[in-house]
Amino acid sequence: MSKPLISALAKFVAATAGRNMTKAAYVAVAVGVVTMTLLTVDPTHEAAHHGASALLWACLAYFVFEWLVRLRHMASQQRLELYMLSSSGLVDAIGALAVPVALVLGVESKTAWLLSVLWVLKVIPGIPGLRQLRRVLVLESGPLLSVLVIFLMVVFLASVAEYFLERDVQPQTFGSVPSALWWAVVTLTTTGYGDVVPVTPLGRIVAALVMISGLGVFGLWTGILATGFAAETRRDNFLKTWETVSKVPFFAALGPSAIADVTHMLRTMDLPARTMIIRKGAQGDCMYFIASGEVEVDLPGKKVALGEGAFFGEMALLGNNVRGANVTTVKVSRLLVLDLVDFRVLMARHPDLAETIDAEAKRRALENK
Fold it and tell me: Where in the cell is it found (predicted)?
């Protein structure tokens, strides 16, 4: 392989040395894991052993090359130790070394390639929702651990109770507390395999209480996580909306409190491409901010494209509620909508907003002459 080609490949991988994976890496993970899975089926292993092995070696070569280039990239930035001790660095190292180390230690080839399942760990840093889940788990760690303590208490108390009540009747299944623990976990999680069932009246009463407790415990966990996710989503949406509103010239002169009020009152609208938002001559009662995407304003004699951060329909808030132009989405767009009623509430709360409105109304009136 020529040096220019090696250099180009190195630059390509080094450019993606961050947490996000390339499309090639996703393909390598998918191909490698699917191939490994197929090799566990005996007919497939016998029929396509050599071809499947070649695919696995190609995927492994990609991950080794990617890991080595990232090591070199981080070393050039004097961040090698930080990278090697980070979660992404450890995942890259495991993906590159797990299978070769197993083969060197003499593990059977078919068994060693099972370690390629660890390649799926490389997908984790590229999933935004998992980062949000990590934040929720950290923020809600106290309540979650409290419920975990309750779970463990119920499991242990129930196993001891069933051991006391059932050991003489069912010595094979409830002959010790560790044996009863299996029943307690299965019952509390409401799985109910049916392999271990109390037969005494008091034992069944305890079982009923454990099942009801299981519903409560998992309901608490679900509620805590759902509330945490909702709070994180509101926080992220508020920050994104704040950033969009603060960039709009119409609100540039407002203070933080006014911008916060605007952010709370905005509602989100997701629209597909080629959707008419405003029709000329219609009555207007709101204005729009473009959070993402692009719209086209059809003015007399020309068409104006507006992108992210722009706004339109503001004349409806400035006294002229008759729409003066057609506005259509060019591509998939997310709009933030501020209604006239909410705008008037803002005026009442923030007198300085009235001065901004008057100045903008005069400027727009001069532009439209």
Answer: Membrane
Could you tell me if 218 and 282 lie in one domain?
no
Three-state SS letters, 237-303: HHHHHHHHHHHCHHHCCCCHHHHHHHHHHCEEEEECCCCEEECCCCECCEEEEEEECCEEEEECCEE
Could you report the per-residue pLDDT of 186-218, keeping only the tens digit for each? Answer: 888 878 777 788 889 999 999 899 999 988 999
Reading phi first (left if > 0) and then psi (alpha if -120 to 50, else beta), residue 106 is in: left
Give the structural domain span for 203: 141-232
Tell whether 108 and 177 lie within a shared domain. no
Does any domain span residue 116? yes
Cα dihedral sign for 6, 12, 18, 21? negative
Query: What are the tens digits of pLDDT across the range 81-139?
Result: 888 888 888 888 898 899 999 999 988 888 888 898 888 888 877 776 777 788 888 88
pLDDT tens per residue across span 18-65: 444 577 888 888 888 888 888 788 776 566 677 788 888 999 999 999
Residue that has been written with the tokens 């969009």 in this structure: 244
Neighbouring C-beta atoms of residue 294, cutoff 10 Å: 16
| In-domain check, residue 294 | yes
Q: How far apart are the first and last CA of the chain?
A: 68
Q: Is 136 domain-assigned?
A: no
Whether residue 280 contacts residue 326, with contact meaning beta carbons closer than 8 Å, is answered with yes
**Residue 92 maps to which CATH number?**
1.20.120
| Among the listed residues 250, 313, 317, the one whose alpha carbon sits nearest the alpha carbon of residue 279 | 313
* H or E element, residue 42: helix 42-47
Residue 253's closest CA among 350, 341, 321? 350
Q: What is the DSSP letter of 322?
A: B
pLDDT more than 70, % of the chain: 85
Q: What is the CATH number of the domain that holds 354?
A: 2.60.120.10
Q: Quick one: which of 110, 111, 130 has its CA closest to 120?
A: 130
pLDDT (mean) for 299-318? 81
Q: Is residue 196 part of a domain?
A: yes
Under 8 Å between Cβ of 56 and 113: yes
